[in-house]
Task: structure prediction
Amino acid sequence: MENTKEVLIIKYGEIALRGKNRYIYENMLIDAVRKNLTGCGDFWVHKEQGRFVVEWNSGADFGRAIPLVARIFGITSVCVAIKLAGQDFDDIKDVALAYARQHCKTPTTFKVDTRRANKQFPLRSDETSGLVGEHLLNNMEGLKVKLSAPEFTLKIEIRNSVYIYSTDVEVKGLGGLPPGSAGRGVLLLSGGIDSPVAGWLAAKRGIGLTAVYFHSPPYTSERAKEKVVDLARQLSQFGGKFKLMVVPFTDIQLKLVDRTPPEKITIMLKRSMLRIAEKVAAKEKALALVTGDSVGQVASQTLHSLHAMTGAANLPILRPVACFDKHEIIAIAQKIETFDISIRPYDDCCTLFLPKHPETKPKLSIIQSIEGSINELDGLMERAITESEIIKF
Ligand code: ATP
Ligand code: MG
Result:
């Protein structure tokens, strides 16, 4: 139709965005939308009183764009709507009729639901709904009005512009809070199944992430690193700024292997990872660490082993999957499309030099005294951070 255009309407959780930081969070969400749509043609995004609208100058590919936007935390729904050039009521009626003819399978029950944010518009919401509904009834066969739970709901939103769509075409978002709105965390991201899921769950609550991966070349391959880079890229799609630091870990690992009884090496490695992550957190102004630890999964993940990590870092450590069963973690990994990447057969550094019999009940005091005796550790850690490779998504 003339004077109309297809656009994307994005709704977001308004409750999460109440209060004085509302504009900051809205801007974070808009940035995340822009980022995810990069490469999706010539578009721009603007605010419309509680909505975002994405318009294309040309080359809109809604099939591609919608899932990219719907996966951003804090967004509640996305849909294609018709935007009218003006606010003329006869035009609204005509466009509504054309839209209903195209999208509504008759015979069916229906209602028109109007929301008038622009109070300059001369008709009230209920008047608009009534008159447009009447226009549809007069011009289409097989329609019957039903105000509660109809099969077809035509939405009219009167804002700076007028938008028309139906609830049928709305794609629901994942819920959660806007990316970064809760502050930053440092995610210890290995190539496994658990830590990407842990990162996703943390991001769901609005935690912006800097991921760190401990890489031990030549003992861990370039492929193992690529796998983590791919996982980080996949996680970055759920919104906001995402950074991966690849920390060279070989020297630290060799030093620890040299100075630790073999059955304690796993705990010692993990503690060093937490210590480095905490140093990174200070630079990133992050307030928490996030790991994929899960209680009781393998010998190295008993409650005793977790206890033996005590004091390695002072920041709060979030372990979002700690109490999930493996199959529950896998179900999420499949949903967020990290599973197929995680099962690529390249080991990370924790599986190196693994003892035949790792200790299942390590004692914190003994671990701490070994750690304290390795004077070179701090310097090695600082150097590892300085020599890290940084990849931004
Ligand atoms: P995942 O499936 O996440 O690899 P996992 O079940 O293999 O976890 P562990 O190897 O014991 O468990 O690791 C526990 C957590 O320690 C990981 O979830 C991750 O947060 C962190 N971690 C382990 N190895 C590394 C690494 N090379 N780089 C970054 N973090 C790591
Ligand atoms: Mg692992």
